[in-house]
Amino acid sequence: xxxxxxxxxxxxxxxxxxxxxxxxxxxxxxxxxxxxxxxxxxxxxxxxxxxxxxxxxxxxxxxxxxxxxxxxxxxxxxxxxxxxxxxxxxxxxxxxxxxxxxxxxxxxxxxxxxxxxxxxxxxxxxxxxxxxxxxxxxxxxxxxxxxxxxxxxxxxxxxxxxxxxxxxxxxxxxxxxxxxxxxxxxxxxxxxxxxxxxxxxxxxxxxxxxxxxxxxxxxxxxxxxxxxxxxxxxxxxxxxxxxxxxxxxxxxxxxxxxxxxxxxxxxxxxxxxxxxxxxxxxxxxxxxxxxxxxxxxxxxxxxxxxxxxxxxxxxxxxxxxxxxxxxxxxxxxxxxxxxxxxxxxxxxxxxxxxxxxxxxxxxxxxxxxxxxxxxxxxxxxxxxxxxxxxxxxxxxxxxxxxxxxxxxxxxxxxxxxxxxxxxxxxxxxxxxxxxxxxxxxxxxxxxxxxxxxxxxxxxxxxxxxxxxxxxxxxxxxxxxxxxxxxxxxxxxxxxxxxxxxxxxxxxxxxxxxxxxxxxxxxxxxxxxxxxxxxxxxxxxxxxxxxxxxxxxxxxxxxxxxxxxxxx
Length: 567
Hints:
By secondary structure, the protein is an alpha+beta fold. 54% of the residues lie in helices and 18% in strands. The protein is built from 18 helices and 17 strands. It has a 6-stranded antiparallel beta sheet, with helices on one face.
């Protein structure tokens, strides 16, 4: 639900902050007071594109910020996770539209792009404008609504998953077919390259190991002379380090016989002598075991030259060469088994096609059962809303696949086009008058009828509709009197499943509000500004009475308003 909305420097709005509640939130106000501006700001909050022209004169930027309670909303949590955004119980969406430069968008104070705002908005709010074709007027949305009403989500998920594999296999086949001629042309060349690489047979990191080994061998004379000299100075020659230390130890032993305090230094010297002896042994063994094999040096140089030649031809490293070897090996294998590979993919496609056909028909059967329940519910709802002789139908159809269209399943020997949603195309049809032919919902012209049809649909689907907030901008246009009372009751009932924010001019609807807000226009410092504030109980009675009678409110109007609000 929308907990709060703040709008700054947007058109006639200087600064509005309002908190909304659960249930039915009603907004009223005179024509031109700024109700449509308020809806426009809400539209921007949900991802509509913005123009710098909406920034209030004299301001640097307009800011619209909404705080939504999304606790336990798994759909929102999933989208935020997909974009690496933190999920919290309160979701803050903010848009900043400057006079100059690009707009900035934020979710929980993290910069995001407009498409991310829109994606979140689509699962939070259903906004119905006065003149918009509401989401339920679009056939793709109608199918989505019907599927949410039904209990076959597991079948839909399975179909969607298979459809993805089906498309992947089709793309794989097209790619393979397009490579046929190239494979034939390159197969012989690839075979030559593979033979050259296999003849040398490079091993991973072999070049690095060879370079290190060569480096040592090429400097072996220096290693030999230096290590031998070190050994001699440490141990072998006269006055070696070992001899000098041994003589020092003898002198300290004599001192220690007289003064025991020299024992500690004696122990330390013993340790030094052991270390010198270890070093001497290391350098003696090193120069004695050093191999000055010039023949081996030349062999290693030749091997390294072969590897470097391969690197010039097939990659900058041994790893690149091995990857290239793997690639051309697969291409050669593919060319040798091309027909077999093609037939294998075609077989996979046909198996998937058959499975999609079976699941698609099961989904279609369940959709038709759900469609009957929706039909009964909508017709009953319209009857309550004063359209007594309505006929509501969900019309099913299937499109035949074209000659070159591979995106199909075969049902009763006919090629039927499919989408990730199945084999069906549906559209809502309606007749609102006795004897009148049913027509697509999108073609129904009467504003009053569309309002009631939408309410009937929303009411029957209320328990399955996942959108937590519905916003209605004067969808009661063309409705008055007794029918207005029925519409108000339907909206009140709908508000028990969703948070509802509705702009209305009808007292019969305003009187049923759980929370009532007033938009009014005032002149401040020779400028016009629009304000929005919540009405208390007394103010609500006055506003409903004003909607009934106009500016002059009589005691009779007030009593009528109180009576209306108690219904």
